[in-house]
Amino acid sequence: MDQEDHRQLSLDVEEETFFKTKAWIPSMRFFKTESRRGNKGHWLFMGFCVLFTGIIAITLVHHSLWMSRELKTTQEYVKTLNISLTTNMAANRNGLQEKEEFAKLTSHQQASKENDFGQKFEAFELLVKNSSTEEKDHYMKLHTELQALEEKVYEHLKQVRSSLDVLTTEIKILSRKEGSKEGRAEPTADCPLNWQKFQKSCYYVSLIQKGWNDSRAFCFDMQSDLVVINNKRENDFIKQNNLMGALWMGLTEIHTDNWEWVDGTNYESNFKLWAQGQPDNWKGHRLFGGEDCVSQLWTGEWNDDHCNRLYYFTCEKAGN
Known about the structure:
Elements: H1 3-129, H2 133-179, E1 196-198, E2 201-205, H3 212-221, E3 225-226, H4 232-240, E4 246-252, E5 260-261, E6 293-297, E7 302-305, E8 312-318
Parallel strand pairs: 4-8
Antiparallel strand pairs: 1-2, 2-8, 3-8, 4-5, 4-6, 6-7
Helix pairs in contact: 2-3
C-alpha cells in the first residue's frame, strides 16, 4: 500500500470514529434527561403518598379525640342517671326497711311493756297482799282509774296533735291562696316556661321536695293545683316525668275519712291505680298519725303516705 492509500485509510477511520462519537453523545444526553425526568416523577409520587398518609393520620387522630369526648360525655350521663336511679331505689328500699325495723321494734317494745307490766303487777300484788281488806279495795280501785285515765289522756293528746298539724297547714294554704287571688291571671294559649303540655292541661314537675300541704301551696302560687289524674294516659304521662321515686298528687283524706280529689272529681267513679296492698294507712313511720295523702311511685302505681313526708310533686292547670 502506497503512502496515499495509507493516508486515506487513516482519514476514513477518524471519520468513522468521529461520527460514532457524535452519535453516542446525543444518546447519552437523552438517557440522562429521561433518567432525571423519571427520578423527578418518582419523588413527586412519594411526596404525594406522604402527604396523603399525613392527612389520613390527622383525620384519624381528630376522629379518635372526638369519639373519646363523646364516650366520656355518655359515661358521665349514664353515671348521673345511675346515681339518680340508685338514690330513688335506695329511698324506696329504706322505706320498706323502715317498716320492717319498726315492726321488729314494736314487737320488742310490746314484749318489754308486757314484761314491765308483769313486774309492776307483781309489786302491786305484793303491796295489796300485805294490806288490809279495806286498803286492798282502795288500791285496786285507784289502780284501775289511773290506767283508764292514762289511756284516755294519750288518745286525746294524739287527736289534738293531729288536728293542730292539719289546721296549721290549712291556714298556710288558705293565706297563700287568698294572697295570690288578685294577681292571678287566666291561663294563656300556650303553657308557661318549664311547663309541659299534655291533652288540655299544662303540668309542672317540681325541682324541690315538700310535704303535701306545702306542695299544694306552691302550686297555688303558680295559679295551679296538685295534679288530678283522670285516666291511664294521663297517669303514664306523669310517670314518664317521675324520675324522683315519688310525686305528690291531688288526692287526700285529710278532711274526712274518704278519699277526695282537690278539684272535687268523684273518687269512686274516677281512674285509680293503687299499688298492691294500698292504701293501708300505715302508722309505723314514727311521724305521728296515719297516711292521708297520695303519691305516685316511679312504677306509676299509687301509694298512700304520711302528708309530712318530703317528696317532689306535680302541679296542673288548664291549657288549650
